[in-house]
Specification:
By secondary structure, this protein is mainly α. Helix content is 70%, strand content 0%.
């Protein structure tokens, strides 16, 4: 039996596991975890997001024309939901314990985290996932012109945060 690439849990096709799903899992797990990590800033949370995405798309895979794109959209949406949940949890924790500190992260991750979600998502999808403006617009549910605007504002804000 061949060893899975690093980071990918071993998955053996079993009854009820379509071969196309297992192949998508093997091919997409690592790239999707990296994408989720860049969006949420936590390896463990990124892995949870990707696992949840695979669970959600498993039943829909036979009806999806582009499973990779559908998976990427699902990961981006679940990452956004996690960020909303974390922000709410931080607000509640800050009210309960004002002296609580946040874990330190590298400078680029901190700078990305300082951006509004849509700007961060556009930058990560554009420069990390190499998605076109049309693909990003489709994933985020906005127009390509909005993607250009978000990218421009995000890069400007990122330069400002990193320069200071």
């Amino acid at each position: 039996m061949e060893t899975p690439p690093s980071g990918i849990p071993s998955v053996q096709p079993a009854a009820g596991w379509p071969t196309s799903f297992v192949e998508l899992y093997r091919a997409s797990y690592d790239p999707m975890v990296r994408l989720a990590y860049l969006l949420v800033g936590s390896q463990s949370l990124a892995e949870e997001v990707v696992q949840e995405a695979f669970v959600r798309i498993r039943g829909h895979l036979d009806r999806v024309e582009h499973p990779g794109a559908y998976l990427r959209s699902t990961v981006v949406n679940l990452a956004r939901n996690q960020l909303r949940r974390r922000a709410l949890e931080r607000d509640v924790a800050a009210r309960a314990r004002p002296e609580a500190s946040v874990d330190e992260v590298d400078e680029l991750s901190d700078a990305l985290a300082a951006l509004p979600y849509r700007q961060r998502a556009v930058l990560v999808l554009r420069y990390y996932q190499d998605c076109s403006e049309a693909e990003i617009a489709s994933i985020l549910g906005c127009r390509p012109g909005t993607v250009k605007s978000l990218a421009s504002r995000g890069l400007s804000a990122l330069r400002g945060v990193l320069a200071s």
